[in-house]
Amino acid sequence: MIILALKIPLPPILEPISWIIGRWETETLAGDRFPISFEHPYKEILDISLTDVPMFDRPPVNVFIRAYTKEGSEYNEVGFMTGKPFRELTGFQEYNKSLNGNDQIAIEMVSNTGIITIEEGMLRNGEILLTLKYKRATPAAIHYLLKNVTILSFFFPFYFDISFPP
């Protein structure tokens, strides 16, 4: 395991997902991929990095995905991931809220094919469980969209799974 120092300080709100910051690489034996499929096996690189200047009040991490085949097909996505701790002090009084719960996570992405996705989920015991909430394409990209993809899961450490319903 290689531990690298971050170039900028990690905001405390991002500490629960600090383990995912870095570069992740995978190579497949098939062409199945979310949100588009390839005809051949492919290699995928997932880069997650800190944002220099937060765009909103809640600091996100940048997400960049590059998937490509030896035959020349390539797919790129850019976006961001952000989280909301269950026990967050907002300045508002909360009544009847349980004492324990899961942190929330969201990823918003746009691709070079014109596909836009929003996934929301939770962080529980070092595991990120995401459900696809929004998927749209520009008219020219509609043929790229897969049907019935519902869950993307990241498991810490080092397990990546894309689940398709039967």
Automatic annotation (TrEMBL):
Listed Pfam families: THAP4_heme-bd
Alphabetical list of InterPro entries matching this protein: Calycin (IPR012674), Nitrobindin (IPR045165), THAP4-like_heme-bd (IPR014878)
Stretches assigned to the THAP4-like heme-binding domain: 14-133
Protein's UniProt name: Bm3475
